[in-house]
Amino acid sequence: MLRPIVAIVGRPNVGKSTLFNRLVGRRQALVRDVPGVTRDRLYGAVAFERWQATAVDTGGFDPDSDEPLVEAVRLQVMVAVEEADVVVFVVDARDGATALDLEIARILRRAGRPVVVAANKVDGGQGQEGAAAEFFRLGFGEPVAISAEHGRGVAELLEVVRARAPETSPPEAGGDPVHLAVIGRPNVGKSSLVNAMVGAERVLVDERPGTTRDAVDTRITYRGRPYVLVDTAGIRRKGKVDEPLEKLAVVMALKSLERCQVVLVVVDASEGVTAQDAHIAGYSRDAGRAAVLVVNKWDLVPPGMVRKAEVIGQIHDRLTFLDYAPVCFTSATRGDGVADLFDAVDGVAAEARRRVPAAAVSEAVGQALARRPISIRGVPLTMQSAAQVSSNPPTFALRVNKPDEIHFSYERYLAKALRRAFGFSGSPIRLSFRKAVGRRPRGRGARR
């Protein structure tokens, strides 16, 4: 174990996600004054002075409900408690200890984990401080009065949690994990794919579209390599997103791309590539992330109906802007294609990190300019130098005489020339044109 795991549990609408966001220092979990917003387990890193931990946000816990989705949430909460080193039991100081709080306390005592009670929504005043004392009756010692919304008492809460948690272990060998964002239309099997990759029911799966609302981080190790999977809410066309909560989910799904290195763009094999698939796939390109196209539900395609090569051709025809991305075929329900998918992820992640020497870049660009020279208002385009300036995505700076007047089609031609020369499978290639400085470039191509 790298860091102690702290599970945040409690009945619906007591402020668990607000506390989670406060602990991880960013708005990672959706927060609305509506019970049941959080359904899956959501992971985030906590740093307090020199102490680090992993916080786990969970859905509202109702142990007595028989409704199928609520039952699935209950199971997710129990899994979070089982894997936790410390449980933060969040209660509402304004409501006092309810019957549901007492029932949850009974279940937590049976689980045998250290429990710290956080009496939330104490926004000031001696009366509220005294109200928090009522939660002594839960049987977990002195409650900590906090206001997750305003940050009051959170440092004191972390001090208590740190004292109850085991020592932080040294990091595992294996290097930094590859962060993967899983995106796609609703109900294309994203959560099922994550479960197949994890090898367990880590993420809540439901047949109804829109089950996943938060971006759910899952840390796994596969064949000795670490990964972080982010399962995101299904993204619909803007005109079809009316519910404010769903709009927030879409925004957070897109924000998850900012902290990932590789994007898995999931499409439904039984439906083919739709216009909305193309729209969503464009997000990965715009974010500058390496991509793998995942054709899920391949088991629903009748054998012999179509060959994989034909499907790949059709996909690249519809998604011409992602013709550099490898295509994998999976059946999430069967677990088929998962090994090939990880191979593709490793490949594109390595390509996205690769650096090319400046001399090789200058030579490749110079040859491209010589093969297809252009003039801008009668002045030949000339290059002074070219070099790779960053990775993830591979970005190249070209110093030329007319940096502001290059047509996008010629920029695309130069990017393809670099891809032909160096590969970068799965990654978009970005070009930055800068004004040549110093001595005037001589002729077409690189200066000798």
Write the layout of secondary structure elements.
Layout: E1 5-9, H1 16-24, E2 42-48, E3 51-57, H2 68-83, E4 86-92, H3 99-111, E5 115-120, H4 126-132, E6 144-145, H5 154-164, E7 178-184, H6 190-198, E8 216-222, E9 225-231, H7 244-256, E10 262-268, H8 275-286, E11 290-296, H9 308-318, E12 327-329, H10 338-353, H11 358-371, E13 375-376, E14 379-380, E15 383-390, E16 395-400, H12 408-422, E17 430-435
Parallel strand pairs: 1-3, 1-4, 4-5, 5-6, 7-9, 7-10, 10-11, 11-12, 16-17
Antiparallel strand pairs: 2-3, 8-9, 13-14, 15-16
Q: Give me the strand/helix succession.
A: EHEEHEHEHEHEHEEHEHEHEHHEEEEHE
Looking at the structure, what is the overall shape? elongated
Number of helices: 12
Beta-strand portion reads: 15-25%
- How do the strands line up in the largest sheet? 2-3-1-4-5-6
Mean pLDDT: 79
Residue runs with pLDDT of under 50 for 5 or more positions: 27-40, 170-174, 202-215, 233-251
What integer value in Å does the Rg equal? 26 Å
Any overview of this molecule?
It is a single chain. The longest helix has 16 residues, at 68-83. The strands form four sheets. The chain has a six-stranded mixed sheet with strand order 2-3-1-4-5-6, sandwiched between helices. Strands 8-9-7-10-11-12 form a six-stranded mixed sheet, with helices on both faces. The chain has a three-stranded mixed sheet with strand order 15-16-17. It contains twelve helices and 17 strands. The radius of gyration is 26 Å and the shape is elongated. It has helices spanning 16-24, 68-83, 99-111, 126-132, 154-164, 190-198, 244-256, 275-286, 308-318, 338-353, 358-371, 408-422; strands at 5-9, 42-48, 51-57, 86-92, 115-120, 144-145, 178-184, 216-222, 225-231, 262-268, 290-296, 327-329, 375-376, 379-380, 383-390, 395-400, 430-435. The chain is of the alpha/beta class.
